[in-house]
Design brief:
It is built from 17 helices and 15 strands. It has 521 residues and is of the alpha/beta class. It folds into 3 domains: 340 residues, Alkaline Phosphatase, subunit A (3-Layer(aba) Sandwich); 109 residues, no CATH class; 37 residues, no CATH class. Strands 1, 2, 3, 6, 7, 8, 9, 10 and 11 form a 9-stranded mixed beta sheet that branches. A 4-stranded antiparallel beta sheet has the order 12-13-14-15, covered by helices on one side. Strands 4-5 form a two-stranded parallel sheet. β12 and β13 form a beta hairpin. It is globular. InterPro entries: Alkaline_phosphatase_core_sf (IPR017850), Sulfatase (IPR050738), Sulfatase_N (IPR000917). This is Sulfatase.
């Protein structure tokens, strides 16, 4: 998975935020003026103004644009295809971090993860948010919404929160002694009160269930027919792994269909906005954890049954924090000034860039920064000595392509683009023309023809570094247990480790339990 404007501007902004904090509750509640403006906007769109919509936010884990409606071959996603055809599909939505917990932290507050000091994966779990910030569910509750986490029928009940600040899934929030994000678990009802539900669809996340899901499928994806990115080697193990990933997507699509059916059966479909996203890119080489499009670019589909914009495709650049701002706007809530996103259906919405960062992920203490305009991508690697393939312990369990392609590299069987991921270092700067080079193979940073573009995006990145400077430098990381687990497997279960090197996913959770039990004994 840096500097912004000038330091004196930060000082001014800080002093302003202190002044604003004194009237925080008043300035960020729905004012009479905002209510009137909201009503006028709804009337202009022929939307009802007398009844607040229900809102469901579906978060599929570890997903790039790998749905049929985005053009992915060999996968069947009829429910999401229908949602896209009936709603609005966004083709250039980016998360602000390619790893789950920093990405989710940004979305939960609506503020870039570095600004709230939540950029390091699974860190600061017992550190409260700065009092200038609040989770967006706080404002929904104040507006009369019942906030719901999870769903009674999806895999694992979809209750994941995974944010890098002190919190509890359920309970009240004051940010001092109460840290609850949601009101209740799993069920929404047609009781006349507006609700917001955040539902995690975790089947697409790597897990010990992938083989079981594939085995139960009535139409498992044929590995011989899949179309993979050109940076993945054409090997039977890698093709099967890609097919399994698409199997999980099809299972997830069925869960989406189930939720829509429940809305219909409960008489809620006509007044419920459904938002579908991925929380970061796919869990494969160059995907989750990396600042390439396969790690940052996510599906975004919004179906508002009241809207006249349905049936359209938007190509403008969207940040995941814009989704948070949009939800608040849907609820008629004035977006707090600390939110770094903007409502995407506002007539004045215009975003030129998304600023993304990559920092700690388990034992790998990275520091990279990026901006993307949808056409151009700039990446600055502050630790170029750390390779892309950093042999991160957790990924050894869940990246069959890594093991296969390392072997192929040793045998001299990888082509130039396949070999790029296995370079011993990273470039200090990377520049890509995404329209001509969507897979980000050709680094133009040293190309004199693109000197002005490089300087422009370098400056934009430095500006964002300063504007999104952390509110605190507190850093309390969580120890990655996968490091000790992998070492234990190498020593105590060498035959299993040999299977891993062949690209077999030997399992993680059941081995973790054995390891823990072994340590207790």
């Amino acid at each position: 998975m840096k500097t912004k404007i000038f330091i004196f501007l930060m000082a001014i902004a800080f002093s302003q935020s202190i002044a604003q904090n004194n009237s925080h509750e008043t300035s960020l509640a729905v004012s009479e003026k905002h209510t009137k403006e909201f009503s006028k906007k709804r009337e202009a769109e022929n939307l009802p103004t007398n009844k607040k919509p229900n809102i469901i936010w579906l978060m599929a884990e570890d997903m790039s644009l790998d749905l049929a409606c985005y053009g992915m071959p060999s996968v069947k996603t009829p429910n999401l295809d229908k949602m896209a055809a009936s709603g609005v599909r966004f083709d250039n939505c980016f998360v602000t971090n390619p790893i789950c917990s920093p990405s989710r932290s940004a979305m939960m507050v609506g503020t870039h993860q570095t600004k709230i000091n939540a950029q390091n994966h699974r860190s600061n779990k017992d550190i409260p948010l700065d009092q200038n910030y609040k989770p967006f569910t706080y404002w929904l509750r104040k507006e009369g919404y019942t906030t719901i986490l999870g769903h009674h029928a999806v895999q694992s009940k979809g209750r994941k929160t995974d944010v890098n600040f002190k919190h509890q899934p359920i309970g009240e929030w004051d940010g001092v002694s109460k840290f609850g994000l949601f009101d209740k678990y799993d069920t929404f009802e047609n009781d006349g009160k507006p609700f917001f539900a955040q539902i995690q669809l975790n089947v697409t996340h790597r897990g010990d269930w992938w083989n079981e899901i594939r085995a139960k499928s009535t139409h498992p994806v044929d590995p011989n027919k899949v179309v993979m990115p050109p940076y993945l080697a054409n090997d039977p193990v890698i093709r099967l792994d890609w097919a399994k990933y698409l199997d999980q997507i099809e299972f997830m699509d069925a869960e989406v269909g189930m939720i829509f059916k429940e809305l219909e059966e409960k008489g809620l479909a006509e007044n419920t906005i459904v938002i579908f996203i991925g929380d970061n890119g796919r869990c494969n080489i160059k995907g989750k954890g990396y600042l390439y499009d396969s790690g940052l670019k996510i599906p975004l589909i919004i179906l508002d049954p009241r809207s006249k914009a349905n049936g359209t495709v938007r190509k403008d650049v969207i940040s995941s924090t814009d989704i948070t701002a949009t939800i608040l706007d849907y609820a008629g809530i004035k977006v707090p000034e600390y939110v770094t996103g903007s409502p995407i259906f506002s007539p004045n919405f215009k975003r030129e860039y998304v600023y993304a960062t990559r920092d700690l992920w388990d034992e790998i203490q990275e520091q990279s920064r990026a901006v993307t305009s949808g056409k151009w991508k700039y990446i600055r690697n502050d630790k170029p000595e750390i390779p892309l393939d950093a042999h991160q312990a957790y990924l050894e369990f869940y990246r069959p392509a890594l093991h296969i392609m390392r072997r192929l590299k040793e045998e001299g069987k990888l082509n130039e683009v396949e070999s790029q991921f296995f370079s011993s270092t990273k470039a200090k700067e990377e520049l890509y023309d995404l329209e001509k080079d969507p897979n980000e193979f050709i680094n133009l940073a040293s190309n004199k023809k693109h000197k002005k573009q490089l300087a422009k995006l370098r400056k934009e990145t430095l500006k964002n570094d300063l504007e999104m400077k952390a509110s605190s430098d507190v850093f309390v990381p969580v120890t990655a247990t996968s490091v000790e687990l992998l070492a234990w497997i190498k020593k105590e279960k060498p035959e299993l480790y040999k299977e891993m090197l062949k690209g077999v996913e030997i399992g993680y959770h059941w081995l973790s339990k054995q390891f823990d039990q072994n340590n207790k004994d």
